[in-house]
Amino acid sequence: MKCQLVLGLSLMMATLVCLGCGETPKPDSSKGKTTGTTTAGATKHDGWWCDEHGIPEAECSMCSSKVAAECKKKGDWCEKHNRAKSQCFLCDPKLKEKYAAVYRAKYGKEPPPTEDEEKEKEKENKKS
């Protein structure tokens, strides 16, 4: 009986360890970024470059509430796309090249595709 109880508790603990607590990352108010581990499909924000948005992490108004607040305060905000106007590739596609040049200067290669580019690619694939 004791052995079965210990075995049952051990299996429950192993399951909890493997699955985690299921919590989503919480904002870190000191940095305005997401902290902790990411959930499936989420982007980690711990590097120099924001792969999701194609901008250096420290400048990304879509990931950092602090950067977003600073941009809004300066009047640099695109209400339509909910990001800094100076980072809105949707309104001004030329801005993407500006940031891509920064990436190429640092890494000597093209930046990874952004989230918006991936979504557009999925739409095109569905049409085919």
Protein model, in words:
The chain has a domain of 65 residues. Helices cover 43% and strands 6% of the residues. About 22% of the residues have low confidence.
Average per-residue pLDDT, rounded, comes to: 76
Proportion in helices:
40-55%
Q: How many beta strands in the DSSP annotation?
A: 4
Strand content: 5-15%
What is the overall shape? globular
Structural class: mainly alpha
- Show unreliable segments: 14-41
Report Rg. Answer: 20 Å
In short:
It is built from four helices and four strands, in the order αββββααα.
Write the SSE topology.
Blueprint: H1 2-19, E1 27-28, E2 33-34, E3 49-50, E4 55-56, H2 65-74, H3 94-107, H4 115-127
Antiparallel strand pairs: 1-2, 3-4
Main attributes of the structure:
128 residues, mainly alpha, two-stranded antiparallel ribbon, 4 helices, 4 strands, globular
